[in-house]
Amino acid sequence: MHFTSSRLLLRPVIPGDVDCLFRIYGDPQTQQFNPAGPYPSLDYARGILRSWLEHSNQPGFGHWAILLQENPHEIIGFGGLTPRVVCGYHINNLGYRFAPQWWGKGLATEFARSVVAWGFEQGKLSEISAVIRPGHSASQHVLEKTGFHFEREVADPEYPSARLFFTLTKAQWRASQGADAK
Q1: Which structural domains are found in the chain, ordered by start?
Q2: What region holds the N-acetyltransferase domain (predicted)?
């Protein structure tokens, strides 16, 4: 499933995206808030991409390559809406990573808003969540601009730092759409 926003083109990931996936997720700058760190190798990225492709058959969920409409041949990031278990909670997880040269341009917010609208309208979801690490103020700002609300801090048994848990319900999103229209 492909879809667009005002500046972005989102398309499902394909096996040929592995080099771009490693370039973005293997970059220490994009993974500075991920306690697992950057992807260690191209083979590791291949395994992740293979996993994404295996789970892309679930209706309403998946990972997308993010491209600019004006340059649909260059992947600038990856994002997705995926069912996950995070610290014992079953969630519809919104996640994304952009190459650093595309930070600060409003693209993550545009991506998040587009995917949330798709998730509630076409995906028929009742709630979407996102988890971030404390101190990741840029992602927190994106989530807040998209309408997410901080729910709680969740201990993460795998890593020393907790996670910040944000949610947005379909009812909250609909109410914000009405407020935006006024």
Answers
A1: 3-181 (3.40.630.30)
A2: 8-169
